[in-house]
Structures are given as structure tokens and as C-alpha cells.
Amino acid sequence: MIRAGIVGATGYTGVELLRLLLAHPGAEPAVVTSRGNAGERLDAMFPNLRGHTDLAFTEPDPGLLAECDVVFFATPHGVAHAMAGELLSRGTRVIDLSADFRIRDAALWSRWYGQPHGAPELLDQAVYGLPEINRKRIPDARLIAVPGCYPTAVSLGFIPLLEAGLVDTAHLVADAKSGVSGAGRKAQVGMLLCEASENFKAYGVAGHRHLPEILQTLGDVAGQTPGLTFVPHLLPMIRGIEASLYAVLKDMDTDLQALYEQRYAAEPFVDVMPPGSHPETRSVRGTNRCRIAVHRPQGGDTAVVLSVIDNLVKGASGQAVQNMNLMFGLPETAGLDGIAVLP
Amino acid sequence: MIRAGIVGATGYTGVELLRLLLAHPGAEPAVVTSRGNAGERLDAMFPNLRGHTDLAFTEPDPGLLAECDVVFFATPHGVAHAMAGELLSRGTRVIDLSADFRIRDAALWSRWYGQPHGAPELLDQAVYGLPEINRKRIPDARLIAVPGCYPTAVSLGFIPLLEAGLVDTAHLVADAKSGVSGAGRKAQVGMLLCEASENFKAYGVAGHRHLPEILQTLGDVAGQTPGLTFVPHLLPMIRGIEASLYAVLKDMDTDLQALYEQRYAAEPFVDVMPPGSHPETRSVRGTNRCRIAVHRPQGGDTAVVLSVIDNLVKGASGQAVQNMNLMFGLPETAGLDGIAVLP
Amino acid sequence: MIRAGIVGATGYTGVELLRLLLAHPGAEPAVVTSRGNAGERLDAMFPNLRGHTDLAFTEPDPGLLAECDVVFFATPHGVAHAMAGELLSRGTRVIDLSADFRIRDAALWSRWYGQPHGAPELLDQAVYGLPEINRKRIPDARLIAVPGCYPTAVSLGFIPLLEAGLVDTAHLVADAKSGVSGAGRKAQVGMLLCEASENFKAYGVAGHRHLPEILQTLGDVAGQTPGLTFVPHLLPMIRGIEASLYAVLKDMDTDLQALYEQRYAAEPFVDVMPPGSHPETRSVRGTNRCRIAVHRPQGGDTAVVLSVIDNLVKGASGQAVQNMNLMFGLPETAGLDGIAVLP
Amino acid sequence: MIRAGIVGATGYTGVELLRLLLAHPGAEPAVVTSRGNAGERLDAMFPNLRGHTDLAFTEPDPGLLAECDVVFFATPHGVAHAMAGELLSRGTRVIDLSADFRIRDAALWSRWYGQPHGAPELLDQAVYGLPEINRKRIPDARLIAVPGCYPTAVSLGFIPLLEAGLVDTAHLVADAKSGVSGAGRKAQVGMLLCEASENFKAYGVAGHRHLPEILQTLGDVAGQTPGLTFVPHLLPMIRGIEASLYAVLKDMDTDLQALYEQRYAAEPFVDVMPPGSHPETRSVRGTNRCRIAVHRPQGGDTAVVLSVIDNLVKGASGQAVQNMNLMFGLPETAGLDGIAVLP
Predict the structure, then answer these.
(1) Yes or no, beta carbons of D193 and B12 under 8 Å apart
(2) Do C304 and D229 touch (CB under 8 A)?
(3) Which of B297, C27, C103, C191 has the smallest count of CB within 10 Å of its CB?
(4) Would you list which residues of chain A are within 8 Å, Cβ to Cβ, of chain C?
(5) Interface predicted TM-score (ipTM) over 0.85
(6) How far apart are CA D94 and CA D62, in angstroms?
(7) Fold entry, domain B2-128
(8) How far is CA B286 from CA B240, B270, C34, D197, in A?
(9) Can you give the pLDDT at residue B64?
């Protein structure tokens, strides 16, 4: 069994990682840290874990963590910067769910995250953990940057079009909507049920931190950085991201459905839906799947791609486990084959 | 007091119309019909009306309805086609909340609504009841076609850009999201709480009936029919539409904020928010307001317009009352000055 | 126009009070204070107020407040204790929405609220503002203690049974459920949408602060303090309280329906529903009504009373305005005749 | 592998049963019937099953079903009456999730379900499938009546008190609240999101069909039929039942916490929470657990028991699988060890 450490497991990505690892056939949580809750049992904070674990939170002790095979960071920005180097130097592999190592350009990172980059010397070895484009690099990686939730949904939706060079990349549009869990388990007025339920709005239109990450990925795929308008919105629900993507086609003859089906035929977690489909977020809730449908409305020159994920699974903890599976030679789907609870 | 008839008041636009008319200072519901519920008190079906009315539903008798000053149709498609002519010939004015008279081209209507147009001879006198572009024609109108909910939110958002000729009209995008009440008070599995809550999806991507209506309005404003990709989505909540609109700017020098503020300065129900705003659907819930914000993200060449309405008020019954006020010489805001209940 | 001051208007009872007073025909908000938000416009914090007021929050200056005819406290416990005395001495009447003056026994208050009572000398003049039992004392009151939300729903439900002496008062049960807005507009993890939606639980079973308040009221009505088991629960929604009340009948011959109808015949805000009804919280949302139904299931010896209110209206701000109307000789229903928005 | 048939798998208990069986280590769905959807793939109706099964619905053919080891009925009342006999006579075991065989008294069943009992001759062999009281009888049973959702939550909560003879059984109160999925996947106006969300109400106060079932179980346990007031309520959420139970203690000296812990110490699916707990429905969502807390508020003479289950799992399909496990000698928890997805 792979011994996994989790730093910062009191948030939503943390408890989701716990859920996945506690049911994983080849790994188990061994050290789970929280500065503020050391000594408390996990299942006292998260009653869904009662009967599944006797672990308690511990102080984030690098020595203890280094005894793990892999350490996950489910922490605010900057924490992995501060701790990853020591763990890596002791031979422990690191899977970071925060944004600390997602952007290759440290200066760009600093600009968007408003603080100096704490570990630019590690950027060279960080692998962006989107298996659908980086699968070959992940097994040998020591340091994985798990993609953000919006970047996962948006990138997977655009990749086939961009790889095939079918669209005008100057004016891509990504209209994305996320459940409230994307904002984390922090006390903030805007995420109260009274504020966020029976309500809908865009936010961060001027510029969201996931924009440079998406541009980096799409640029890698397209060969040059595209022009992208990215508008996130807050959905009155807990889990799920839907991204509706718009691109003007330069080539109207390609069978988009076939293109998508072929691109993702071998991907265990990308499900291209039948023609005419409208993927629902609930169909992937609690699972590591991304469901995608591609449309060309009214036979016009605009492609519409609909992409849904669970922001806490394929958009965070599930993708982290998928990376762990690849890093440790386990079946890629190990521990990730649950069926969405519906309704 | 204006005596108002309502045909088909058992749906959501019907009960909303009742709420507005029962509190209106210059009008009152006089005849309220329902074929299936004749004899039943309104407040037995809608307990929120207890203490506010003693009316009961009656059979839809044209003679009785013709005694009203104005008759509202809150009915499925085709009913107003069948009944409006007789009422008009008897001198009763008609405000139709269905789509029966929204499209000027009867053949186009038939194609989208899948049935022959039942009253093409009345199309000439029908006025599209969007006061923000047709205010002058409404006072003398005998027959008003109340705009659809999506068309109201989308058109009000695009109008300033199109009137000013600032954007490439070949590739407009309208990504719209609606609460479930837009689907009406019909027993259908897809709108059950178990299906529609904690879930999000697009629908009707191939072609939604509101598309030709939007194209007609935007075409009137722009001077030619634009290219528009319109994708509606279903929100896990009751009321509210948010439309996020995308257009590529041909002219980057215009102050968009000033443009929108000036265009709507005299409009009592269009509120242009301060720069950088993200209008929330709840801020207009139960009210006749449309709140709009305009952005140019990252200083790029794409304008993003965010437009919110309550689909049952400005998107249906409130706009119907606004038209009634204009038709009968009442203050345009009469009975429409309520404040949104928040939270 | 009555000039009203509001201390602490940044919470949910505050914004609800603003909504009601801004639409009130005989009163208006004149001074609205907030220590933390002085200088900010009300409609910047609460966009539903845009177009309805130009007021800004000010520092809570007793001098300014004393120029008002009446000052509402929508504050945490203890604030009204500290400020009410000075206002009263200057002739300004006080309507306190907090619990500061609800309990006549200062020692009992201290025990439940965990702090010394800050103004025991004012308790003599405080009138418990439940018009349905205290209507005669309210017009001359200088200091009103607005009842809590649960106490309003529970007391109105039990009063007819207790006044008539029909039930065993040793074992009353009140199973009450409240929307999340009852917890206020405070940043706290437990009230996040992610924690409170799609979830249900009891809380405070060991003892909730509203228990002594309910016991005081029921004791006044029954002539002696009853035995009451009161269990509150948290509903996954914003507004509304439903209380299901259980009492064993000593007398099986009384017509409970008639009893309730007669008791509340003259009450403008208590609506006894027809036999067999199940009142819905949404039917009173945004309104000052309490809807009640009384049942005797299976013809047995247990009475079941179902009572619903909007916790922010009849359970707080609406009842406060009802008291104001009575204190200043206005029609009791002035500004409180809105119809619930449904759906 | 146990070959399972499912009759009527298009409802919510049906799809939940599919989810559980598709992931079950010792059983698999072999025949899945639906009269109205024969020929359609399961995953076309339920997209969460995409990638997990290639099965399609078939006509309910008794011959095909009889080839299964066990057949589950997830059907409206009366269907199992009509078909169970033939299957049993062919040696196929039957697990009925409907109410057809829950009540031992056929006349009583007819009275509550408003139709003649269709198979009274089978009642003798039907075993009420609540393992916590009937575990010994289940392995040899040929016909299992899976308990209703409310009866499961209420009975498990009351059993320890009644078995120990600690309470006055004349005036038990069960105030129960259920998510909307309890009403099934039927098109009905009352269960639309627009009707059931942001709303709460009691229903069926005069008499709910689960009442005689609860009385039968509690009577078995207590030795005589108790007096019970049972009031169900509709929660604005999808899954979960919470039952708050009230009973007057005859004996004040018993340690209720110890009583409950001992009673359920060996039960794999009943989790007695620590003293002072308030179990949340979400902590059992998607799982077969019942979580229970017992309180004696204010040290008084009334016991309050809080019991939560997922109505579709421990209240239906999960309990059905638990019975199957016991019937076929599998580990009782096989396929039922998932962790609730939280948040």
C-alpha cells in the first residue's frame, strides 16, 4: 500500500481526497495534517468518515510527512512552495493541488497571485498533471501540479479543436459555471447559503487566476497563445463545473463528433457524449469523469463545446489520485471507478 | 380602475400577473379563466393570495372577457391566436404573454413552433412590447406581444452595442441561464426538484424558439440580421435569468460604460451598474428591473455584457403590466415599484 | 412621516427592515448606522435597494439617532442594553429586534445569554411586542421587545389551546424548523451553502435561547409555566419557519378548528387555514402573516398544530413594523400588505 | 455472481439499486425491466451509468426473470402482488421494495392502500426485511418485504426505548422530514423544483401509509401497539430523512446513551453518535447507514431521539441489498461500504 500524506486536509479538496484514498485499493492516508486541528479525529470534523478511519489530524511535521511515499498538498497558495523542496530532497514525491507549481513562468505566477514565487527552483521538475496531454511525463515525475478546476474543464473541451487547428484562436470564449465548493471551506459571507442559493452571477470578469493557466495549456496545444475571454459564474449548488465553449470554425468540413471521439477514445475519464447531447454536472458528481458534447448550432460556423466535471474530483482530488496512480504504476482508474449518485 | 381579464392564470406567469394586478393602484383582475379549474377559488390554488382576493376561476367565456378593458393571455402557444381576434373586434385590448404574435413572419413562426400560424391577419397590428425600443408605438397598440424572457435579457444587453455599430455582428454569442420557472407549472420529470436541483446543464443548443425572436429584435436594431450563437442553460433555482453576452469590438475607443449609461438613462427599469459590477439575479427577483454591467476584460477587443432579469417579471408578467400602463396612460412604473426581497 | 433610525442595518433583519420602511406609506428610514460600514451607500451593500434610496450608513451617533421618532435595533445581544436608555431618556421610542428585553427576569436572561444583563432598570417598561396577546399595551409603550422568530411561530400556534385550557401542559412538544437566514449574515462555516444545502439536522437540542422566551409567553397564557420540549432544526433554504406542535388533549369535545378561527378572527396577520390544510412556508415568504392549521390525526387524543411564518418578517422586521404602526396610531397593516412572491 | 433481476428500474429506487449492484462484488444486474422503456439502454436514461453497463431495459418477462437468482421489485403497489407468486414457485427469491408485503394483515393493507390485497396467500412467507430486528429470519426467507423509508428511520430510533420498556407508549411522537426523492420519479406538479425548493411543509397529517407499518413494527417490539402521532414533512432537498422522536420516560435512571450504544453495538449500519450529537442527513447520503443520537433535554422527562438515513439507500435500495447479502450468505456489508460524498 502506498502511504500518502495530506497537508491541509480540513478543506473540501482535503476531505474529498480522504474519501478517495480511504476507499483506494492500493493506497491509504497515513499522515493527515492540520495546524489548527491537530489532535482532533478526522471523523469528528467530517462525520461521513465515521466508521472508515481512526486517524486524527497531526501538526504538519516534515519528518513525519517525509516517511510517506507521496504527500498531497490541499493547501492555500504558498504552502507547497515552502514545504515541497524538503520533501522532494528526502525522496518523497509531491502532488500539489494548489496553484503553486501550475504556471511555468514564476513572474507571471507572482503577478496573478500577488506574492513572490516561493520556489522557482522547483519549476523545472514540476509536471502539469493533466494526463490527457501529459500522460507520458507523469510516471517519472517527482512533483505534480494538479490542474485547477476551470482549467481542466475548459482545456479538455478545447484541446481537440486546437490540436486540429480548426478554429480561429484569436477570439475563443469560455463561459464557465462552478458550484460553490470551488470557493473552499472558508467562512465568507458571499458563500453563505443565504447569499449564494436562489441566485446566479458572473464574477472575476476582469481577470480570474485560472486565465493564465488555461492560456498556458491552450498555448501548448495550439502552438501559440490564443485570445480567450474567460468568464466564471457562481452556481447555486455545491458541486460541478459546466463550461460552454465557443469558437469560430475556419474549416467547416471536419466531422467534429468523430474528431472528439477519436481524440479521447483511449482516455478512461473523458466521455464524449452522443451527438446532440447536453452533459449534466450531476452525471459526474463524485466521479473523476469529464463529459463532453460538441455542437455546431444551426449548421453555422461556430462550434459549441459543452464540458462538465466535478470540480472537487476531476477538478482537484480525483485528478490528484489519477496522477498518483500513474506515478506509482497502479491502474490509472484504481479507486476512481465509483458511479455518480443520482439523483 | 382598469378591468383586466386573464386567460390561463394557473401557470407561473399567471399567478405572477395576479400578484402584480392585485397590488396595482390603477387596475384589478376582473375575470380569471381556467378551463380545468373553473369554480375553484384562486387562493385555493395559490395560498399566497389568501386574504388578497375572493375571485374564482371561470370558464374562458369570450363574452365575459370582452367586458374587460384588457385581456392578458398567459397560455400555451396557439390559444391567443384563436381568441384574440374576437376580443379585438369587440374593442378589448389584448396583451399576449405567449409567443403567438412575437414573430412578424408567420412562416418563420410556424417553422419554429411546429404548427400553422393561427392568426396571420393580426400580425400587422401586433406591437412587440419591449418598451425600451418600442415605447412610442405601445400607447396606441391594440395587441401587444410581450417579449420572451431570454429575448428580453439578451436584447437589452446587446442593444447599445448594436445601435452604436461598435461590434462585429457576424459572431455574437449569448450564453444564457434561466431558473426553472421558465419551464412553467407543468408536470414534467425534467423539472422535478430531484432532477433540476444540484445540477446544471445546457439545453436546446441545436436551436431554441427564442432564437428567431432575438434575431428579429437585434436585426431591427442593427439594420441587418446578425450571426448569433444562443445557448440556454437550466439553473438549479426558481427565478432569474442571467445572460452573458460576448461581442468582438470593431472600435476600441468608445467608452462602453458611458454608452450604456446614456442609452438607458431615461429607462425606469434598466439599471446600468457601476464599472466592474457583476449583477446578481436575486437583486431583481420579483421586480421588473433589468440590471446590466459592461466589461472589456483585460483591455482586449471583446466586450462582455452581463444582463439579469426576473424571467417571470421583466421577462413576462411585469413587462406585460408595464405595457398595460403605457397603453392606458398610467405612470409606467405603476404597480411595479416593489423592492426585491433579499436574502 | 415617522422618522426611523436603524442601528445595525447590515444584517438580514436590517435589510428586511429597510425594504419594509422604504415602501412604507407613513414612515421612512432617516438614520441607518453601522460601525464598520459608515460612509458606504446602503445600495452598494444591498443592490436590491438601488433606485430606492440614496442613504448611506453612518456611525451610530446617539445624538443623531435621538432626533428620530423611533429607533430600531437590529443588533447582536447587548447593544440595545447599552444604547436604549439614552434614547428613551431623550424621548425617542425604541423597538428592539434583539433578545435584550424579551425576558422579564434579568437573571434568567444572563444565564441563557452568557453575559450580565446590561439594563435591568429598563425591563419594567419593556413591552413584549406580540400584538396577538399584547395589542393594548403596545400603543403607549416606549420600549418594545420584538419576539424571537421561533417564539412567534410556536406561541401563536399554542395560544388558543392553552388559553382554553384544553391540553396537558406537562408534555408539550414543539418541533421547529428554520431557514438559514435565522442565523444571520455572519461569516460562519456551518451556514455556507456547501454545508447547509442538501442537508438537514436538528441543533440546540440540549437548550436553545428561545426556550425561556417561549416558556415565559406560554406561561403567561396558561397561568403556569408548561413543560415544553423544543427542538429546532436547520432547513436547507433561506427563509421560513415551520413549527409542528404536539399536545395531548384533556378535552376531546371541543371543535379545535372553530376555536382557532374564533381566537384569530380579528387578527390581521394570523390566517387559520381550512380543516385539513398543511401551511407552506413559501405562502408567507416576504410577508408578515402567520398561517396555522390544526389537526387531530386519526381522531386520537393528540392535537397537531402547524404554524408557518417568515422568520425575517413576522419573526423579526415585519413584526417590528407592526409594533411601530400600533405605537404611532397608523393602520396596523400599513406597509405590511405585500403578497408573497410565488413561486 | 448472483444474477439479479430488477422489475421497474426507471424510478429512483431502481437507479439506486442499479448503482449498488453494478459496483457489488458478488452480484450483478442481469435482467432489468420496464414496460414503457423496453429496448432503451439504461445509460441513455441514466447518464451516470455510462461506462458502467451495456444493459438495456426489457419487457417484464416472467420467464426471463425466473432465470435470475433473485428479483427485486422497485414498482408501484400491486405489481409485486401480481408477479411474486410465479417467481417464487419457480424457485426465484423475491425482494420487494414496494409496500405489497409489509403489512401482515391483508385487510389493514387494503384499507390504507385503497385496493384489494393481490396476494394474501404469500403473506405467511414474507419476512419484514429490517435486519436489526429480523436478522435471523432473513437468510432463509424466499420473500422479503423491504421496509419503507420513514418506518426504517422511525423504528430504528424507537426500538431501544421500547424494547427496554422505558417510555409511556401511549403518546409517542414522530416528527419526520424527507427529501423529495421519496415521492419518486413521477411527473407531478407538487414535486417540481419551483414548488418544493425554498419551501417546507407538513403533509399527510391525517394519516400516512407508513403509519400502520410503523405501528406494526413498534408493536412487535413493545409487545403491544403504541399510540403514535406521525407527521411527515417535505424537505427542499433530494435525499435524506431525519426523524425527531419524542417519548415521555417512565424511568429516569437509565443511561440512554449506553442503552443505545449497546443495542446497536453489533449492527454494521447503525451508528450511535456521541452524546450531544445532531446527526446530519448528508453524513449518510448515498450510504446504508442510520445515524442516531439520543438526548434528554434540560434533564427533563422527555427523551428526544434523532435518526437520519438516506431514504433511497437504508430506506430502500441499500436495505434491499443488505437483505440480499444476508439471504445469499455474503458479507452483510458487501457492496455497501461506500463513504458519503461530502460536501
Answers:
(1) no
(2) yes
(3) B297
(4) 12, 180-181, 185-189, 191-198, 236-238
(5) yes
(6) 12
(7) Rossmann fold (3.40.50)
(8) 9, 15, 28, 16
(9) 96
